[in-house]
Amino acid sequence: MAELTPLDEKLAEVLGLAQAAQQATTHVAGMEGADAFKKDLAKMSDQAAETERRTDAYIDTLEGRKTAIREKARETKSEAVEMMKTYLEGEEEALDGFEFLSMAEAGELCHWEIVQTIAGAAGDAKAKAIADWAVPVQQTHINGVRDAYLALAVEEAKEMASA
Fold first, then answer.
1. What's the start-to-end Cα distance of the chain, in Å?
2. How far is CA 163 from CA 47, 91, 152, 155, in A?
3. Residue 9 to residues 15, 44, 134, 136, 157: CA-CA distances in angstroms?
4. pLDDT surpasses 80 at 2
5. What is the pTM of this model?
6. Cα–Cα distance for residue pair 75/63, rounded to 1 Å
7. Is CATH 1.10.1740.10 what the domain over 6-162 is classified as, yes or no?
């Protein structure tokens, strides 16, 4: 197995997280109370798929390290999906799903900002360009998830008040 650079490791992680995000948004879209957010969740899933595509295309150019990076990406995806299953086990309401997504999206943003910083400092213009694209996408996801969980919290409060 090839020795991975810190940038390679972070690229693997963002690839795995983008793959897991597609599963997470689909899962949350199927939860009780998510109907009003399905369009936004589908867009987030599509953007995660585009993130995966762009990242994987770049990884494809890294001779001698592709396999190792993709293996680490599979591990990251597996860990993220397992975390989602653990967090959402027994939960049916979309509010719980969006709480999980708030953590997942913040983690993705953190990883992309690290890729952006390392790539910039290392002079890897191609990796930095992908990160420069991905960081605002992740910021939009965080804001959208926040809007959703706060809207759902308002609904939760109304239900409590009427009970």
1. 60
2. 39, 21, 17, 12
3. 10, 24, 17, 21, 43
4. no
5. 0.95
6. 21
7. no
